[in-house]
Design brief:
Length: 116
């Protein structure tokens, strides 16, 4: 049974990782396209820049969530050792820190603060 689960989990992790990379790429391209079209319409540059950062930040956050999920699946189902769990913990901490700082950068407040 384990001989069947590991390859399936590896494929699932690869698919989810590809989705994460695709999301980041598509959001980056869309944000850039949106900024260029708005700049050609002579809109205010501060507004364009703010929206570009917001769109790109959202794409990175969403993509990071998929990348974390793929790392968890791969580590738990394919290579479950103390070493890989330690590496996974470090990767998840780094990506969580990135997500947290991106959220603060985009919203201007900590995620647990009220929306007041």
């Amino acid at each position: 049974m384990i001989d069947f689960i590991a390859p399936v989990a590896a494929w699932c992790a690869a698919i989810i990782e590809s989705i994460g990379i695709g999301i980041i790429t598509l959001f980056a391209l869309y944000a850039l396209y949106n900024a260029v079209t708005r700049a050609l319409k002579k809109e205010e540059s501060d507004s364009i820049f703010d929206e570009l950062r917001q769109l790109l930040g959202r794409g990175i956050l969403l993509g990071l969530e998929f990348l974390i999920a793929s790392d968890i699946i791969y580590t738990v189902a394919v290579q479950l050792t103390f070493e890989t769990i330690g590496v996974l913990a470090i990767v998840v901490l780094i990506r969580t820190f990135l997500s947290l700082t991106l959220e603060v950068e985009m919203s201007g407040k900590w995620p647990w603060q009220n929306n007041k």
